[in-house]
Specification:
alpha/beta, Lyase, Ornithine Decarboxylase, Chain A, domain 1, TIM Barrel, ten-stranded mixed sheet, 20 strands, Amidophosphoribosyltransferase, D-amino_acid_metab_enzyme, D-ser_dehydrat-like_dom, Ala_racemase_N
């Protein structure tokens, strides 16, 4: 029985072979430079995919919420890092997790550090997040007063252990010169390591985002890299030059419900509730909500002529179809959509159907 026979509504497909290849490639890149790969699991959010990562020597992972941390607790990870400025309202949950799992958090101010110093009953590590230069979050790299205030506050308890500095240069998504961004980020972390390593000889520095980690070949003296989207990639990463279409490991299978040959349009059951609404712009100004691939029993193939989702609503999607697609597809068939942003699509869909017909888990579907 083909996995396709199980699909009657929008379903997120996972190509294990491509996913494993992506993991293996990034793990080898880290190993070749003597770095530790600590992937960010906000993309995959799956224990099964975590088990695949372990096969390539990965022993720590990063998550984006305490709910996600709980999902991976006590599953054989040496450490789980919550890479989001810690929410002090979740101190009780953190205490519970830290009873049995080595865990770390991200700190950016004295107030939350003091809250943890006052309430923690079990040991928790922490990284100080450094602002990468695009102003989303973090401590300014030159704000030694705040850095040292956080460190001094943490010293009030034996339960807060400084692990190092974390920097996410997310503006690689918006800037062509990723090499320069990483040069600046690596230099900032190197300066901080040199300044604080005498007092904290075991501190680690971590940098990570997929566009940068995919193309940068020299990470300097950074200890760890932490990309996330690389396990699946997506059409945004293709546009950014991180990968090729053949490297995208997930596709949304959608049923064809109508065809308008005179308009060269195909109506599919697949919209914003399945893909989210991330969008790329075509050279002529048209919107692109995902790229069409042709499904088969082995997975999918990339057609020679491009077709893409030109518009979506809540449940509907309209494909701008090539002649090749119009001559191939009929109402009732399934086609695949390579997502613009695989993290958001996976979060919307909450599970994966593998090509062997077995389901893979997702945090939100648990």
């Amino acid at each position: 029985m083909s996995y396709l026979d199980k699909i009657t509504s929008p379903t997120l497909l996972l190509n294990e072979q491509i996913c494993r290849k992506n993991i293996e490639s990034m793990a080898a890149k880290a190993q070749n430079q003597g770095k530790e790969l600590v992937p960010h699991f906000k993309t995959a959010q799956s224990q099964l995919i975590g088990d695949w990562c372990k096969e390539y020597g990965i022993r720590q992972l990063t998550v984006s919420s305490i709910k996600m941390a709980a999902y991976f607790c006590n599953k054989g990870w040496n450490n789980i890092h919550i890479a989001f400025p810690f929410n002090p309202l979740e101190s009780s949950q953190l205490n519970t997790l830290a009873k049995s799992q080595r865990i770390s958090v991200q700190l950016i101010n004295e107030n939350v550090t003091q809250k943890l110093a006052d309430t923690l009953e079990h040991e928790v590590g922490f990284f100080i997040e450094i602002d990468a230069g695009y102003g989303r979050t973090g401590v300014e790299v030159s704000d030694f007063g705040l850095i040292e205030a956080i460190l001094l506050t943490a010293k009030k308890t034996d339960n807060l252990k400084f692990q190092g500095f974390y920097l996410h240069p997310g503006h690689t998504y918006y800037t062509a010169d990723k090499q320069q961004i990483y040069k600046e980020s690596i230099a900032a972390l190197s300066m901080l390591k040199n300044k604080y390593s005498t007092e904290y000889p075991e501190l680690k520095t971590r940098v990570g985002d997929t566009p940068g980690c995919a193309v940068v070949e020299d990470f300097g003296d950074v200890d760890q890299i932490g990309p996330g989207n690389f396990v699946f990639y997506d059409m945004m990463q293709v546009q950014l030059g991180s990968c090729q279409k053949e490297d995208v490991a997930v596709a949304l299978a959608v049923p064809v419900v109508d065809i308008k040959k005179e308009r060269k349009e195909i109506l599919v059951h697949g919209g914003g509730v399945h893909l989210a609404k991330d969008v790329l712009m075509e050279p002529n100004g048209e919107k692109n909500f995902g790229e069409v691939v042709l499904l088969n029993d082995q997975g999918w193939t990339i057609p020679s002529s491009r077709s893409f989702l030109k518009s979506i609503s809540q449940e509907h999607g309209i494909v701008k179809a090539s002649d090749e697609l119009l001559n191939t597809i009929k109402v009732g068939d399934l086609i695949g959509i390579l997502p613009i942003h695989s993290c958001m699509t996976a979060d919307c869909m909450k599970s994966y159907l593998k090509l062997d017909g077995e389901w893979a888990d997702h945090v939100e579907g648990a």
